[in-house]
Amino acid sequence: WHLRECLLGLQVLAYNRHTYETVAQLLIVTVVPAPGGEPPYQGEFLVGNRNVEELLPVAAQEIFLGATAGVWEQDDLHVINITSALDRGGRVPLPIEGRKEGVYVKVGSRGGFSPCLASAASPQSRFRCSLGQQPLASCYDTFAPHFTIRWCNLTLLQVWPSPTSPGPVWGSGVLEEGGDFQPPTEVPPRDLLPGYLVTLLVPLAVAVLLCLLLGHLMCCRREGV
Questions:
Q1: What's CA 52's distance to the chain center, in Å?
Q2: pLDDT in tens, 30-52
Q3: Which domain holds residue 82?
Q4: Residues 128 and 14: beta-carbon distance below 8 Å
Q5: What's the structural domain count of the chain?
Q6: Are 85 and 46 spatial neighbours (Cβ–Cβ below 8 Å)?
Q7: DSSP helix/strand/coil, 75
Q8: 218 lies in a domain?
Q9: Is position 179 within any domain?
Q10: What are the angstrom distances between the C-alpha of 34 and each of 54, 61, 63, 100?
Q11: Residues in contact with 17: Cβ distance below 8 Å, sequence separation at least 6, in sequence order
Q12: Residue 117 in domain
């Protein structure tokens, strides 16, 4: 059994950044799996000069994919996910100089990564980023000047298809000839009497000793006796 189509209802709550007015809307989303499955090569870019709502329109995504094709050297790119940097632990920008929150954009492709992307995500490039230096990039940045990419946050993933486990095989429901039911082996009987006596007699003996001690103290240790 395979999932062909799924309807998902989302209640979107939005607010105005300037007036703080809120509005709610019920959004019905139809989720259809990709015909060829999940793309095996995925790259996630951090766009530092954009907010998440600026990359949601289709026109903005097409512009971003065109810039991504320049460094990826593939023509079958498509956007997989768009996430605000605030959801990844980013800080709210100061309301000065038109600063943006930042957006993580995940792009997928059937083709492999270009040497430019591989060098930018290499361990040598990560080491340079840890020293505060510019990462390794052996190609022209086609994102500029529209998109400012934080190359030190570039993440490249190679997703392998997971094998599908076969489902249960249902029989006819009729017991085959000669296949008598074999109950599990019987548990040997246990003698519970010693444990019962210990549980009962030990507290009783302690109670008797306490009563005798208390009676001795109250009756035989009184003044004048």
A1: 20
A2: 777 666 678 899 999 999 989 99
A3: 37-158
A4: no
A5: 1
A6: yes
A7: coil
A8: no
A9: no
A10: 25, 18, 22, 32
A11: none
A12: yes
